[in-house]
Write a structure and sequence with these properties.
- The chain is an alpha/beta fold.
- The chain has one domain: Rossmann fold.
- The strands form three sheets. A seven-stranded parallel β-sheet has the order 3-2-1-4-5-6-10, sandwiched between helices. The chain has a three-stranded mixed β-sheet with strand order 7-9-11. The chain has a two-stranded parallel ribbon with strand order 8-12.
- Helix 2 links the parallel strand 2 and strand 3.
- The chain is globular, with a radius of gyration of 18 Å.
- The protein binds nicotinamide-adenine-dinucleotide.
- The site of nicotinamide-adenine-dinucleotide has 29 residues, from helix 1, helix 5 and strand 7.
């Protein structure tokens, strides 16, 4: 029996990772802070009752280790983190959760004899020039985690796969700098105007695809190193995103700025496929259409409210 612990499971990617686990018949233990059930309700609906939902803080190392043992965890997917705006507002807590929290997850795995972990790094680990000189503390901490994972492999033989997502979009993406394209999709579904405060080329990845990729990486226990990959997606400028929204919601009024975010635009995304096998990602236009249809339904059921 496969039982996967997902930390940060109430986040956007966490909800989609749980979706993939349930769809494939795996056991799922979701660990997150109290509150904030809305993304799980949105993405999982009635299937939420098939998840073991635990309230906990990854900074409580002893409780985390106890959870891994007591729940019979066989695999770990570590997603819990403070994203850029929260990390900027609370740098000490950000460093604790994003860096020490990751060490705690590796320690809990070590204590339970779990030999492999998948975890979330970020495109923010790079500078726009594709050097490892991040422009945010958040990016510095993600890079630190990649180092932590490398040392746990060297010292303790725990292998790992990190993914560096870029712009994740889809149901449940309502927080973080790059959530604006998804908020624009919600606004379009609600018939409201919206302004995306950035532009330029970026790689777009649907939450459904990224959640499933993370699960595949968590289950890849035959892995023998500490690796970090840039997952594939659709490289698109903001104009193309706005056009896709317009196609799915004719008459929508989404505008955008020209200012690019401080991320690279050209980098390798082939290595992940070489490591875990064939990958199919949803094309941007199909993902936007699915998201807007999902938001229309969620608005009707009052599972989401239009952006303020
Ligand atoms: N969404 C993106 O576009 C994107 C891009 C790059 C990297 N990432 C990374 O992927 C991961 C998941 O992203 P997301 O979009 O789902 O983020 P999110 O903000 O939606 O979810 C993060 C979750 O972590 C939880 N969390 C925070 N502190 C915790 C703690 N101390 N203990 C337990 N849980 C805690 C939060 O409550 C939240 O539910 C994060 O590590 C993020 O940095 C996301």
């Amino acid at each position: 029996m496969t039982t996967v612990l997902v930390t940060g499971a109430k986040g956007c990617i966490g909800a989609w990772a749980l979706r993939a686990l349930l769809d494939d018949g795996h056991g799922a233990v979701a660990l997150d802070l109290p509150g904030n059930m809305h993304r799980l309700q949105l993405v999982l609906g009635d299937d939420l009752n098939r998840v073991t939902l635990l309230e906990g803080d990854i900074l409580d190392a002893a409780a985390l280790a106890e959870t891994v043992q007591a729940q019979g965890i066989t695999h770990i997917l570590h997603l819990a983190a403070l994203q850029v705006p929260a990390a900027r507002a609370h740098p000490t807590r950000g460093a604790q959760v994003n860096v020490v929290g990751t060490v705690n997850v590796f320690e809990a795995a070590r204590a339970a004899g779990i030999r492999h972990i998948a975890y979330a790094s970020s495109i923010a680990a790079y500078s726009p020039e594709l050097t490892f000189e991040p422009r945010t503390l958040y990016g510095v901490w993600k890079l630190a985690n990649e180092g932590t994972a490398r040392i746990y492999h060297l010292d303790h033989g725990i292998s790992s796969i990190a993914l560096r997502p870029y712009v994740v979009y889809g149901l449940g993406r309502d927080f973080g700098v790059t959530s604006a394209p998804t908020v624009a999709m919600l606004a379009a579904a609600a018939g409201q105007p919206y302004h995306i405060p950035f532009g330029g080329d970026m790689l777009y990845q649907s939450g459904r695809d990224i959640g499933r990729l993370f699960v595949r990486c968590a289950l890849a226990t035959q892995f023998d190193r500490a690796a970090v990959y840039n997952p594939p997606g659709t490289l698109a400028d903001t104009r193309r995103v706005v056009e896709a929204i317009e196609r799915a919601a004719p008459g929508s009024a989404v505008t955008y700025d020209d200012t690019a975010l401080p991320f690279p635009t050209h980098f390798d995304t082939d290595e992940l496929e070489e490591a875990i096998g064939s990958i199919t990602m949803t094309p941007l236009e199909a993902g936007v259409a699915e998201t807007i249809a999902g938001f229309r339904e969620a608005l009707e059921k009052r599972l989401v409210t239009p952006p303020q």
